[in-house]
Design a protein that fits this description.
Blueprint (H helix, E strand, L loop, with lengths): L1 H13 L4 E10 L4 H16 L3 E7 L3 E2 H13 L4 E5 L5 E3 L1 H7 L3 E4 L4 E3 L13 H22 L3 H9 L3 E3 H6 L5 E2 L3 H11 L5 E6 L4 H9 L2 H20 L5 H19 L4 H19 L5 H16 L6 E2 L5 H30 L10 E8 L4 E6 L2 E7 L8 E8 L2 E6 L3
Parallel strand pairs: 1-2, 1-10, 2-4, 4-6, 5-7, 6-9, 14-16
Antiparallel strand pairs: 3-11, 7-8, 12-13, 12-15, 13-14, 15-16
Organism: Calditerrivibrio nitroreducens (strain DSM 19672 / NBRC 101217 / Yu37-1)
Pfam families: NfeD (PF01957), NfeD1b_N (PF25145), NfeD_membrane (PF24961)
Protein name: Nodulation efficiency protein NfeD
């Protein structure tokens, strides 16, 4: 029994000697300076532990300068760097393509894709003229140098920039862009073990970002930044309409602070911001100015254009507001303006039929009447009015209002 316990203890304490962790992190969303710092800290920790460094990647793009720093980290790393584009449906496009190609070992899941790394101008369109050639040459040289270093297909890598091509996992494997395709963790571990000739037992160990990093990643979502901006605008508007509670003011201030923090993470195109503000102003103006829908059309057009180019700025690659969010916001603001407009028109019509003009045709009851002068008091619509008539009327009769002369109503009796 004692021998069995000693053997068991020996195996338990010697297990770490015969096993090795794969230092694993997940990078989702936009590539920013915080992404670079997160990767830098963890790759340094993995280097001290002499581990394999694995990045599970799913990104539409990011800031080019931060991407260059991450690529430099990967190319200079003393430990194996593995990028795994996962889960199925994930992507490594735009800036993400540079990061993926710079790894020692690039893996993708089925259903993922890579590529589309063409630079754009501040309006989100292709750059024109000599500047286009300069930017394209610089970006092309960048991705070609990565492909040369990692033994990838230089021609296809170049076309990702020049022609903005995008490849599925299988297409990328066939064209020597990706090294292998895996769909399970067991298969992933086995591939890494064989690739780097590791004899120890491998296991994945995931490292989570700190609270600060999680907040930064949350604020680096373009859709979140847009929502924060619109919440701030709506809260300020509501505070002016319903002052005194400070609830909307507090929400607005918090949204503005978060928005300002967010645009320090992802630079924005201020032309896009001005178009968004102008679009909202035009939509509000439609409520008060009769333009037969022209202000609404201009406002929605400005709002859509502003949302589309808000993150189209030099140094940003693949960062944009998702099309469904743009459509939802336009429909929301259009619906709100339509609703408010209907309420204003309804209130205007209601006002036009109140007061003295709205008394004509109303039915009242005679409270007091002088038959000689044919004048008296009647109750109409909850109010007591002075009235006169050309017909004989008695107290308690029902009368209909025919005319309004100053504060005197001319009425006639309604036969019972």
């Amino acid at each position: 029994m004692r021998r069995f316990i000693l053997i068991a203890l020996f195996l338990i304490f010697s297990l770490p000697v015969f096993s090795k962790e794969i230092y694993t992190i997940e990078v989702n969303g936009i590539i920013t300076e915080f992404t670079y710092k997160f990767i830098k800290v963890n790759i340094e920790n993995a280097s001290r532990a002499d581990s394999v460094f694995l990045v599970k990647l799913d990104t539409p793009g990011g800031i080019l300068e931060s991407t260059r720093k991450i690529v430099q980290l990967f190319l200079e790393s003393k430990i194996p760097v593995v990028v795994y584009v996962s889960p199925q449906g994930a992507r490594a496009t735009s800036a993400g393509a540079f990061i993926a190609l710079s790894s020692n070992y690039l893996l993708m899941s089925d259903g993922t894709h890579i590529g589309a790394a063409h630079p754009v101008n501040i309006t989100g369109e292709d750059i024109k003229g000599d500047m286009r050639k300069k930017v394209e040459n610089d970006t092309t040289a960048f991705i070609r140098s990565i492909a040369q270093k990692r033994g990838k297909n230089e021609q296809i890598a170049t076309e990702m920039v020049i022609n903005s091509i995008s490849l599925t996992a299988r297409e990328a494997y066939d064209k020597r862009i990706v090294d292998d395709i895996v769909n399970t963790e067991e298969e992933l571990i086995e591939k890494i073990k064989n690739r780097f000739n590791i004899k120890e037992t491998l296991f994945l160990k995931k490292y989570e970002p700190s609270i600060t990093e999680k907040i930064a990643f949350f604020l680096s979502d373009p859709n979140i930044i847009v929502l924060l901006l619109l919440i701030a605008i709506a809260s300020i508007f509501l505070e002016f309409k319903m002052p005194g509670t400070f609830i909307f003011a507090s929400i607005g201030i918090a949204a503005i602070i978060l928005f300002l923090l967010a645009i320090n993470i992802i630079p924005i195109n201020y032309l896009g911001l001005l178009l968004i503000l102008a679009g909202i102003v035009l939509l509000i103006a439609e409520i008060f100015i009769t333009s037969f829908g022209l202000l609404s059309i201009a406002g929605i057009s400005a709002l859509a254009a502003g949302l589309y180019i808000l993150f189209s700025k030099g140094g940003n690659m693949g960062i944009n507001v998702s099309l469904p969010i743009i459509i939802i916001l336009i429909l929301f603001f259009g619906g709100v303006i339509l609703l408010i407009g209907k309420l204003v028109i309804k209130d205007f019509k209601k006002r036009s039929v109140t007061g003295t003009e709205g008394m004509i045709g109303k039915i009242g009851e005679v409270l007091d009447w002088d038959t000689s002068s044919r004048k008296g008091k009647i109750l109409v619509h909850g109010e007591i009015w002075s009235a006169e008539s050309d017909t004989d009327i008695n107290r308690g009769d029902k009368v209909e209002v025919l005319q309004v002369n100053d504060l005197m109503l001319k009425v006639k009796r309604i036969d019972r």
